[in-house]
Structure formats: structure tokens, C-alpha cells
């Protein structure tokens, strides 16, 4: 077996507010079960997605195939590393888009299904993985970004990722991302409120209620502040129609999206009733 670094796309993701969650759980086992459920679901979803992509294209029919598309995970405590080997140039755009779609879905699923806020970072750099351990600049830099810069429940895009992407792709933005107030790109997981089985308004109303619930559950000032900043992201989404919506939605859906301001949170009023 070769032991050498190769280029990978790597996401490091951490569950926020673990101490608060443990205090609110009836037992430490409850939190363990919650983590096990979300990680099992993530592995299952990623495994199914890998098979779907691998079987979608045929070399003779499509003039390319995606048999090497194989997203993997490693889990430690309340951290998960999700990674994909760097793609060939002709598959680069598709693989990046699919990988970012998975990361956005993971954040969405963590919150909507398990009421867990996460933060992290995605990077492109040298990385090593085998059955026992993972290591490399891709992971250590993503961890540094998560610890130093993410701060709030967001998954950042590292500078190395941005440089690599924009050197190859002549387009305005990385798929499934948007720019925050500090200029940093982060994963725009609320894109998944554009699902067919529920209306965007229903999804964003649920998102609003989850954030309010998380704020009231938080025991520490620092955690309350992080949830508050997540509420600002929520309001930005409710009050703005982004480029993805304009490109992919019908006129009727866009009209519905204009009503999403009803789902926003009046933060001033909220803080008058719920102090930090």
C-alpha cells in the first residue's frame, strides 16, 4: 500500500453546542444515539449518492464515466470528515458541484432532522487516507478555518479551495455557496428548502422555529450569540431571492418566494423577550 499525500476535496464539520446538548439530554447516551443516527444516515446517504453518480453515466453513450466518484467519511467524537479524491479536469465542475451538494444536504439534514447546528470548512489540498487514519494539509487547514473563522453555524470555503476553483472555472460563484458579511464564502444549506415535498415557506417556518428553540435551550452566552447570528442568515434568505432561485424557479415559485419575508424573525423584538 502506498503511503503518500494526494490532492483531495475535504470537509471538516463539527457539532456546535455539545456541552449544552449534554446538559439538556436526559442522559449522555441520548446524545450518543443522536450522533450515531446522524452519522449512520450520512454514510448511508453518501453511499447511495456514490452509487447513483457511478451508474448514471456510460463511457460509450456519454463519452465519460464517473466510476471513481467515491465520497468517504471518517468520524471522531462530534466531528466528521467528508472527502473526495481530486477529479480529472473534464469531471472537475460536476464533482465539485456534487460534493458541495452533499455538504449542504448534510448541514440541512443535521438541523432539520436532528436539531443539531454544525460548523466547519471545505478545502482542496494534499491529504492521505486509509482504513486506519487520515491526515494532511487539506484537513488541518479546514480544521483551522472552522476553529478560527467559522465561529457561527456555517461551513466556510477555504482560500485554497477558492483559488483552485476559480483558476479552472470561469463562473461567478462556487455551487451551493453564498458570501457572508465578512466576505467569506459559506455553504448555503437553505437551498434545500426548495424541495418538492414541502413548500419553501413551510420549510423556512420550521427553520425559524428550530433556531428559536435552540436559542432558548442554550445555556451559555457564546452559544446564544451563535444561534442569533444563524437567525441573521435565516432572515437574509427569507428577504432575498438569490441567483439560484431566479435561474431555476418558475415565475409562480418566485412569487411564492417573495412571501417568505413572513417567515423572518424580528430580532429586536425577539431579544426584548429573550435576553442574551
Question: Would you spell out the secondary-structure blueprint of this structure?
Answer:
Elements: E1 6-15, H1 18-24, H2 28-56, H3 59-62, E2 72-76, E3 79-85, H4 92-114, E4 118-129, E5 134-135, H5 137-150, E6 155-157, H6 159-168, E7 177-179, E8 185-187, H7 200-217, H8 221-239, H9 243-248, H10 251-257, H11 267-273
Parallel strand pairs: 4-6
Antiparallel strand pairs: 1-3, 1-4, 2-3, 4-5, 7-8
Helix pairs in contact: 2-4, 7-8
Overview of the structural elements:
This protein has helices spanning 18-24, 28-56, 59-62, 92-114, 137-150, 159-168, 200-217, 221-239, 243-248, 251-257, 267-273; strands at residues 6-15, 72-76, 79-85, 118-129, 134-135, 155-157, 177-179, 185-187. It has 276 residues and is α+β, with helices and mostly antiparallel strands. Strands 1, 2, 3, 4, 5 and 6 form a six-stranded mixed sheet that branches. It has a two-stranded antiparallel sheet with strand order 7-8. Helix 2 packs antiparallel against helix 4 (92-114) and helix 7 packs antiparallel against helix 8 (221-239). It starts with 5 loop residues before the first strand and ends with a helix. Mean pLDDT is 85; it is low at 241-250.
Amino acid at each position: 500500500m502506498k503511503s503518500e499525500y494526494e490532492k483531495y476535496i475535504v470537509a471538516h464539520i463539527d457539532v456546535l453546542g455539545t456541552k449544552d446538548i449534554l446538559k439538556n439530554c436526559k442522559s449522555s447516551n441520548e446524545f450518543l444515539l443522536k450522533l450515531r443516527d446522524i452519522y449512520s444516515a450520512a454514510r448511508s446517504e453518501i453511499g447511495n449518492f456514490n452509487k447513483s453518480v457511478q451508474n448514471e453515466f456510460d463511457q460509450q453513450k456519454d463519452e465519460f464515466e464517473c466510476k471513481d466518484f467515491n465520497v468517504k467519511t471518517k468520524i471522531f467524537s462530534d466531528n466528521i470528515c467528508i472527502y473526495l479524491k481530486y477529479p480529472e479536469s473534464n469531471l472537475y465542475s460536476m464533482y465539485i458541484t456534487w460534493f458541495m451538494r452533499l455538504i449542504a444536504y448534510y448541514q440541512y439534514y443535521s438541523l432539520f432532522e436532528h436539531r443539531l447546528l454544525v460548523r466547519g470548512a471545505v478545502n482542496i489540498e494534499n491529504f492521505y487516507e486509509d482504513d486506519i487514519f487520515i491526515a494532511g494539509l487539506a484537513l488541518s487547514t479546514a480544521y483551522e478555518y472552522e476553529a478560527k473563522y467559522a465561529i457561527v453555524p456555517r461551513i466556510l470555503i477555504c482560500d485554497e479551495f477558492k483559488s483552485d476553483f476559480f483558476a479552472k472555472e470561469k463562473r461567478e460563484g462556487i455551487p451551493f455557496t453564498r458570501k457572508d458579511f465578512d466576505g467569506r464564502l459559506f455553504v448555503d444549506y437553505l437551498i434545500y428548502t426548495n424541495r418538492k415535498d414541502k413548500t419553501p415557506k413551510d420549510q423556512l417556518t420550521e427553520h425559524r422555529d428550530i433556531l428559536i428553540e435552540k436559542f432558548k435551550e442554550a445555556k451559555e452566552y457564546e452559544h446564544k450569540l451563535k444561534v442569533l447570528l444563524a437567525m441573521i442568515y435565516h432572515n437574509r434568505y427569507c428577504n432575498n431571492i438569490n441567483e439560484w432561485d431566479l435561474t431555476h424557479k418558475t415565475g409562480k415559485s418566485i412569487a411564492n418566494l417573495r412571501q417568505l419575508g413572513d417567515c423572518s424573525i424580528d430580532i429586536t423584538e425577539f431579544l426584548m423577550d429573550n435576553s442574551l
